[in-house]
Amino acid sequence: MRVQRLLVPVLLLTQTLLFSCTRDSYFLNNKAHEKQVKDRIQSLLEIPSTKQSNTDSLTINDQWIGTTNFSIRRPNFVVIHHTAQESLDQTITTFTLTRTQVSSHYVIGRDGTIVQMLNDYLRSWHAGRGKWGNDTDLNSSSIGIELDNNGSEYFSEQQIESLLLLLGRLKEKYNIPTANFIGHSDLAPGRKVDPNVYFPWKRLADAGFGFWYDEELMSPGFEQSKHPLPENFNAMDALRIIGYDISDPEAAILSFKLHFIKRDVDKDLSYLDQLILYNLYKKYL
Ligand SMILES: [Zn+2]
């Protein structure tokens, strides 16, 4: 009788603890996130200082006159990654540890589960050092999407289906141009190789996310000799116009081939590779 009386509260306490553990496993993390967001809101409420220092010769009228004609800046690119990790849980852990200094707006699991980790309007740390066109701060201008993948495997059908649905929503909501769906390796040649060679870029382009070259170039009856390149065609200029940073030409070619050629990913551009590049670059003009 006495034991029973003791057991009931002990069991209740254990149940409560177990329940709050599952419910609140990210409680402290989410609290810290909320505090950081509130700090940013506070900084937006501050009236900008018109003078940076006494020696500053820049003069801006001291009178602050706030306009009401504004909104929050919108993302205009989507950058796709693979996580190079073993599971969705492992990636979530990585993105919730302060010391890693990396994150992304969305992570998509192999089973198609989408986890959002940051408001689209906030700046995630996923792109790092890189350049696309003249944009040198892709973290500021883009949404980052990480796909759970160990780096050398195929992407699952459920994962790609979820990705396409998410891209559709983002493209419509922020009016993101078709050309602005890129991979991490595109903006960071020589530094990044994700998403890996199995990533279905053509399928994305067919759905309106990024460009792809005309199918006829790959058809069995296609005769390369009947398609001369223009005399003044310059492959590096074409890569630059698409958006690649060509300061390291070999690295730019490797990134281009990882995205568009795939059948081999070396530093040489064959005649067919150049025809594909020529065909593509006209779409980016
Ligand atoms: Zn990446």
Would you write up a description of this structure?
The protein has 285 residues and is of the alpha/beta class. It has two domains: 74-211, Lysozyme-like, CATH 3.40.80; 213-285. It is built from ten helices and five strands; from the N terminus they run H-H-E-H-E-E-H-E-H-E-H-H-H-H-H. Helix 8 (235-242) runs parallel beside helix 10 (271-284). The longest helix is centred in the N-terminal third of the chain and has 22 residues, at 2-23. The protein is globular and about 70 Å long. The model has no long low-confidence stretch (mean pLDDT 92). The structure holds zinc ion. The site of zinc ion (ZN) has 4 residues, from loops. Residues 81, 184, 192, 194 line the site of zinc ion (ZN).
The overall pLDDT, averaged over residues, is: 92
Second-tier CATH architecture of the largest domain: 3-Layer(aba) Sandwich
Q: State the separation between the terminal residues, measured CA to CA.
A: 84 Å
CATH level-1 class of the largest domain: Alpha Beta
Task: Look at the structure and name the CATH superfamily of the largest domain.
Answer: Peptidoglycan recognition protein-like
The unreliable regions are none
Instruction: Assign an overall shape.
Output: globular
The biggest sheet, with number of strands, parallel, antiparallel or mixed sense and barrel status, is:
5 strands, mixed
Report the count of strand segments.
Answer: 5
Kindly estimate the percentage of residues that lie in beta strands according to DSSP. 5-15%
What small-molecule ligands were found? zinc ion
Strand arrangement, major sheet: 3-2-4-1-5
Tally of helical segments: 10
